[in-house]
Amino acid sequence: MKVEATIDLQTAATTIWDVTVVGAGPSGALAARQLSQLGRRVLLVDKASFPRTKVCGCCLNPRGQQSLQAAGLGNLVSSLGAVDISRLKVGSGSRQADLPLQGTVSLSRQALDSALVTAAVDAGVQFLPQTEARLGATSTDGRIVRLRQGKRHEELQIRVLVAADGVGGGLMKGSEVDSTVRENSRVGAGIIVNCDAAHYRRGTIYMACGGDGYVGLVRLEDNRLDIAAAFDRKPVKQAGGLGPLAAQILREAHFPEIPNLDRRQWQGTPLLTRQSHRVFAKNAFLVGDAAGYVEPFTGEGMAWALAGGMSVAQIASRAVDGWDPALGEEWSRVHRQVVGRRQWLCRALSRGLRHPRLTHATIRVLSQFPFLATPFIRSLAETATTIKSGIR
Ligand SMILES: Cc1cc2nc3c(=O)[nH]c(=O)nc-3n(C[C@H](O)[C@H](O)[C@H](O)COP(=O)(O)OP(=O)(O)OC[C@H]3O[C@@H](n4cnc5c(N)ncnc54)[C@H](O)[C@@H]3O)c2cc1C
Asked: What is the tally of structural domains in the chain?
C-alpha cells in the first residue's frame, strides 16, 4: 500500500527541523524513527515514492532482525510474511555446495522499506517522498539542503543532516565528504519475476558464481523470485545487457534456466562503490551504504544499515543542541564498532569471488565438506553487541 506524504514541499521548507534525514531506506527510516522517539522534530525525504523496488538480494540476517527488535519492531518481519531461510546453495561450474543457514529471512524491499517508513511516520516523523535533495552551502546555524520536486525547488535550512542516500545517492557530491569511486567496481542488477521453476525452492538462497560476476536468487513472501546480481562492467556490454549476462552465469553454474530472463526489464545500479574518508561533516552524519559500501552476501547490507540507523540517532540528537566536532569523531568510532569490523569479511569474500579458479576450488571443497563454511557464515551473521537503542 502506498505510503503517502505527510507534508508538502512548501510547508517542509518553511518549517524548522531538528534533523533532516535524506533517504528512506532501512538506515534512514530507522534513524528518523529513533530520532523522533528521542523527541526531535524530524523530516524524512526520499526521491522515490513508496513502495519502491530496490536492487537487493532481499535477505535479512539475524543481526538485522536484532536491530529491529532493539528498536521495538521485533514483530515487523514476521507480520509481513518473511520467509525463513535454511539453506544456501552456491554453484560454480559443475560444482554446487549446499550449506546450512540459520536465522536469515527473505522479504521484499517493497514490503520491508514501506513498513519502516510507516513505523517512522507513526512515531511522528514527517515524510516527504518524490523529492530529491542536494547539499548546499554551510550556514552559521547549520547547512542548506536544496529540495527538488519535479520543476519546483525549495531551500531548507537544517540544523542536523543524516545522509542515508545509499550507494548511488550523490547527496554529498562536491562536499568535503564526497566519496571516491573505484574504477574496477561492479554494477548491480535486479529483477523480481513470477517463476514456477520448482528447482528454486522457498527457504533457500541460490548463488551462481561466474567469472564475470554472480547471481543470487531467493523466493519472497509472495513466492515471486527475487534475482539480484553484481557484474563486472565490460562483460555486461559484451553479453548484450544485464539479462543476457545473468542468464549466461546461471547456465555456467548449471542452475536451471528462467524463461525469458535475457529479455526482461532489469533494474541496474550505478557502480557499487562508495568510500568516504570520513563518515561525518559539519552538522552532518553519513549512515548505511552512504557511509561506505561493501558487497553483501547473506544479508549484511541491511543489517549494517539498520544497526547504523539505530546508533546514529542518539549522536545526531545531541548534535541538535549544538555542533561539536567531537560528535563526528564519536560517530566514526561507533560506526567502526557497529559495522567496520565485520566488513573486512565481506571485502575478503568479494575479492575471492573475483578469482574464478579460487571460487571454483572453494565450492568444490565445500560441496564435500559443507561444515567448513559454518564458522564463516556464523561470523557474518553474528549478533551485534554494540547496537544502542538510541532512546534516552
Ligand atoms: C546486488 C545487490 C544485492 C544485495 N543483496 C542484499 C541482501 O540480500 N541483503 C542485504 O542485507 N543487503 C543486500 N544488499 C545491500 C542492501 O541493498 C543495502 O546495503 C541497503 O539497502 C542499504 O540501505 P540504506 O538505507 O543505506 O540505503 P538504500 O536502501 O539504498 O536507501 C537509500 C534511499 O535514498 C534515496 N535517495 C538517494 N539519493 C537521494 C537524494 N539525493 N535525495 C532523496 N533521496 C535519495 C533512495 O531513493 C533510497 O530510497 C544488496 C545490494 C546489491 C546491490
From this structure: 1
